[in-house]
Extracellular solute-binding protein
Amino acid sequence: MRRNAVVAVLSATALAATLAGCSGGGNEAAADTTQNCTNKIVRQDAPKVSVWAWYPNMAKVVDNFNNAHSDVQVCWTVAGQGADEYAKFQTAVEAGKGAPDVVMLEADHLANYEIQNALVDLSKFGANDVKKNFSAGAWKDVSQGEAVYAIPVDGGPMAMIYRKDVFDKYGIPIPTTWAEYAADAQKLKDAGGPAFGDLGANVPAVLTALMAQKGAVPFNYDLANQKDVTISLDSQPAKDVLNYWAGLAKKGLVDKVDQFTPDYISGVVGGKYATYVSAAWAPGYLSGAGVGNGADKGQFRVAPLPQWDASNPVSVNWGGSAFAVTSQAKNQKLAAEVAIGLYADDASLTDGWKTQTIFPLNQNVLSSKEFINNPVDFFGGQTANKDIYIPAENAYKGFDYSPFTTYYYAQLQAEITKINSGEISGDQAATELQNTMVTYAKSQGFNVK
C-alpha cells in the first residue's frame, strides 16, 4: 500500500552507528505498548501483542483476528501513516524502547530497519510455512537470503490506467511499448488533446521501478555483508529511462505536477491526463479521493504497463506493505503468530479487496474465481484482476532495495525536479545521482562496489 511519495525513516547517525557495530533494538528496556488499544480486547486473560498499522479497515481486521484467537489478542494503534509512523518507529529504535511488537512497513523500507537489527527473522517462527501463499517476487521483497523479515499483505503490480473517453475521442491506440507511448503522446498533443501523463517529482519510486523494468539494478545489497553495497544509478538502462521521461517533459507531452495533491486529483477528474502510470492499489486511492464518482464515472480503463522490449516483458511493482516483528517485542513467538496471521484470514482479505483497501498478495485470493472474475466498477466493469493485475503480480520477480531508501528517494526527487525545470538532461541526472549516493554511502561507512 503506497500513499506517501517520500517518507523519512533512517537517520544518518543511526545508520553510521549501526555499521560501526552498534545495534538498534533490544527489548531489555521495552515499554508496555499494550496499554492504549484502539480496538476491543475480546479475551482479557490472553496475552496481548501491540500492533502499529494504518490500513483503513484495520478495525475489522483486528476484530476478525481477536475473535478467532484465544491464545493471543491484538492491541492495535494507528501511530500514523507512512512517514509519521516511520518517524515514531525510528525514534523508538534509537531509544531501544517504545516500539510496538508488530509494525506495518512498506517493502521498500524493510532494509532500513534490518540493518539496525530492529526486526526479527521470522523464519525461526514458521514464516516459511506460508511462503507458498505468495509469489516469488513478493517473498523476495521481504527476505534476505534465508531470513524472512516480514509477512506480505498487499502489493502494487504496475499497469497503465487510461481515460477511455480521451482515447476514443482522439483515436489513440493503447500503447504496448514505451516507444508507442511517446508516439501516442505526440499524436494527442498535435490534436490539441490533454497531457498524455505526468512526471511528478514526488513519485521517485515510479521511475525506480521503470529503471528496473529496463534492466537496471540500481542497488545490490545483502544483509550478510551489511557494510557492502553496489550502486549503479548511472548505468545505461537507468540513463535511458531518465532521458526518456526528460524528453517527454521537454516536449510538453506530459505534465510535471506533484501527484497525491489536490491539483493533481482535480486534473485527473477533469480529464487533464490521458494516462496514469500506477499500481494495483490506485483504483482504491483514486475513488477514495473522489475520482470516478461524478461526470468522469465509467471513463477509466486499465491496460498492461508498456514495455521497453515487447519481446521481453518485465513486471514491476510500486508499493506494498507487510507486517514485521520488532526486536523490542516482549514475546517474539506470539508476535510472529500475529504477523503471520493478521490480515491473512479469508474474511479480512475479502473485505480488503472488495473495498479496494488492498491489492492482496495471498495466492488463496489471487486464485479465487470471485477475485479473478470480479468486474471492477471503477474500470467500467472491466475484469482488471484477471486481465491485468494478477498476471503482473505473478510475473514480478522482486527487487533489491537499498539500506537507505529514504535518502535515495529524496535525491532522485531533487533530480526529477531539475529535469522538470529544464536544468539538466537525464544523463546528467543519472551522473549526479550516482555521485551523490556513492558519497553518502561512503560517509555512512559502506564499502561501495
In short: The domain at 158-316+401-448 is CATH 3.40.190.10 (D-Maltodextrin-Binding Protein; domain 2).
